[in-house]
Amino acid sequence: MSVYLTRIAVSAIRNISNKSFTLSNVVEFSPVKLFLNNRSDVFNLSRQLIVRNFTTDTIQPVVALENASIPLKKKTAHKKAVLEDLTKKEGHYLTFAYATANSYDLKALKEALVQQKLYEPGKLKAHEVGDVVIANPVYTIGTEPREIIFFKEGAVVFWNCTELEASNVLDFVKRYEIESYPKDVVEREREVMTYVYQPNVKKCHLQESCFVLVPDRDNSLEKYSFSHAMAQSARLGAWEARLESLAASVREHSAIMERDGATYVDKKEVVRKLGELFSLRHRLNVESDLLDTPDFYWEEEELERLYSNTVAYFTIPRRTRVLNERLSHCVELLELLSSWAADRHHVRLEWMVIALILAEVCFELLHFFERSSRSVRRKTSYTVDFEDPLLHDISIIDT
C-alpha cells in the first residue's frame, strides 16, 4: 500500500513540474525527500522553496552561464624564436636549421667538402646513418666544437656556427641542390634554437627553446635527433610558404568568380597549378616521414622520445594536418576551375559543330536554288524551241 501511495505522489509532483506558468516570480523546488517514519505517518514531504525574480532583459543562454567559469582553450601554435633574444643568454650556443632545396646530392657534396679541406666527414658514434653527411670543421674556435649536419631531404643544421659561416656554407651547397627554394623563403623559414650543458643531468631533454645536453659525454646521437626534428620543421615551413604563393593565385580566380560570376582561365595554367599541388602533397605525405616516426628511432627508445618531444614543440603534426586541409581546399577549387574550362571548351566545340552544320545547310540551299533555276531555264528554252517551228508553219499557211 505504501508503495502504491508513493507512486501516486511522485506522479502528481511530476505533473505539477511539467506545467508552465507565466509568473514574474518563479518558484524552484528542491528534490523531494521521502521519510517513512511509521505506519501511521506514511511519508513526509520536506522541500525548500526558493523564490527568484527573473526579467526578460537579463536572460542569458544556459550553456554560457554554465561555462562562464571555464577558461577558453587557446590554440597551441609554434612561434619562431627570435635570434636577438637567444644570443643574450649566457652559456648557450646557437643552432640554425635551413631548408634550401627539395634534396641534395650528398655524394658530390661529401667529395666537395673533402676537396675544400675546411671540413672533414664525421660519424655518429658507431652508427652509420644513411642519407646524412656530417661535417666537422678542421679549424676550431674556442673550446666548444662546431658541427654541420646535411640531410638528403634538402636541409642543413648548424651547431655552434655563426651566421656568417652558415651563409658561406649555404652559398657553397647551392651547386649540389636539386629544385632549390627561393632565398627569401630559406631565410624566413629557418629555425633557431640554443643548447646548453647542464651539470648533474643524466639525460638530454628539451627545455622551452633550448636543448639540454649532458656534459663530458658524446651527445652526437642526441644532436642528430634534435637536428632531424628542426630540419623537418624548416622543410614544412618552406612547403607552407609554397602553398601560400599557390593559394594567392587561386584566390584571384575565386575573387573574379565572386565579383563577375564567371572567370576565364587557361586550362594549361590550371593543370600546371594542379600538378604543383599534387607534387607538394606527394612530398608531404609520401616522400617525407612527417606523418610517422622514422625507422631509425624504432630501436632507440630514448632517441625516439627526444625526436617526438621536439616534433611536438614545433607543432609539426598539427601543421601537417592543416597543410593537408589547405591543399585539399585548393585542389577542390582548381578542379572546379578545370571542369569549368573543360565545359567551356566543350561548349565551344558544340558551337563550332553547329556553325559547320549551318554552313552546310546554306551550301545545300544554294545548290538547291541553282538546280531549281537551271530547271526553270531548261523549261523556258524548251517551250521557245517548240513554239518557233509552229509559228513558222502558221506563217507559211497564211501566205
Automatic annotation (TrEMBL):
GO terms under cellular component: mitochondrion
Which interval of the chain is the signal sequence? none
Task: Describe the location of the DUF155 domain by residue ranges.
Answer: 148-324
Superkingdom assignment: Eukaryota
Q: Which PANTHER family match?
A: REQUIRED FOR MEIOTIC NUCLEAR DIVISION PROTEIN 1 HOMOLOG (PTHR16255)
Q: Which family does it belong to?
A: Belongs to the RMD1/sif2 family.
Annotated protein name in UniProt: Required for meiotic nuclear division protein 1 homolog
Give the originating organism. Papilio xuthus (Asian swallowtail butterfly)
